[in-house]
Amino acid sequence: MYLRTLIPFVCSIIFLVPQSLRAQEKNPSFPWPEGKTMALSLSFDDARASNPTLGVPLLNEYDVKATFFLVPSAVRKDLEGWRKAAASGHEMANHSLTHPCSGNFVWSRNKALENYTLDRMKKELSQASGEIEALLGTAPEVFAYPCGQTFVGKGTYTESYVPLISEMFLAGRGWLDEAPVDPWYADLAQLTGVSMDNKHFEDLLPMIKSAGAQGQWLVLAGHETNDSGNQTSYLETIRQICEYAKDPANGVWIAPIGTIARYVQEKRTIMGDSLNLPQLVRPGQDGSLVLNARYGRGLGPRITYMPEWNAFGWFMGKDLVEWDVEASQAGSYSVVLEWSVSDQEAGKAFVLTTGSEALRGKVGKTGSWETFKSERIGDIVLDKGYNKVVFKAAEAFDEGALLDLREIRLIPVK
User: Fold this and answer.
1) Max CA-CA distance within the chain?
2) Tens-place pLDDT, residues 320-371
3) Which fold has domain 3-27+275-412?
């Protein structure tokens, strides 16, 4: 295919790029709306008294909509203020029923996460959402973990409640994190929340600019909205953030967490096949493992992920692809390879390895680079649990190509 005449030249230009980044760097920039270069969300926790009285009016000056994570009992203290905030378009979100945190915080000892179960947490989150909707007329779509803690139970009984948040909400936000959100990669149930409490605009500007340069989504998190005080996002800082975000020259899309999360979700669905995002391959219901190129990690001098073919292309014998795999059972797996190759390049030796196991063969003809073929090539043994599966050339070569690899399917042998 024509691409193979161009890639060696391009790769020679980027030869100094670390091998572990070579394939991933081909992913397109995230397509933020209206040509924006980044996304920014302002969020505030606990339904603090200063939010509807000072924070919301300031945000409304700039027509900036924020996300407020609410505890129902705190909302009742200024119900009219919070109803006005909701009516003006701000996002009303869930921050739990009673703000449970680890019992290591003495004030949380009577609602310690260590004494929670997933069932109790689910019931309380549902109750909190129901109460917020009844009070404000809007059903929460996103959640913020109180204290940024994502577990229930203690010791051997400890469990993550991230899966519960993934099931119940569009997105979940953390606290005291140190980096923006990568919109292609991030788990929407574990969005990083960067503190803006007790910070001046100059403290936050480097991270805002870095997010813009990387095309990322920065989620800022605070509590009180006032001129001073502990756990307070300063009004002047909020004002300067709004002014910066509203300047078209800065390319910032500022919107609530739920609005941006839904947009990210939609773009991932539309563009998912064009991305190479290495991730753990988990078994299907029948125990089969599908190792497609999208989830593999390309390593080597010239390995290239080609989104138009959903496949990796080899250009040197040192190129390889590896997958992290979680097998539900130990034993033999039938290996089905899906590949393409020109008749001129066919015939080179390959090896598929996992642990001490190795399956060897030669790349068969498919008729052309554009014609993909699926064929069983043998069996390999996997351990139960984690395995690393590697596909590579069995012999070194400096010219030509091995194949274009779209998928390897591992099917348990009964």
Assistant:
1) 76
2) 999 999 999 999 999 999 999 999 999 999 999 999 999 999 999 999 999 9
3) Jelly Rolls (2.60.120)
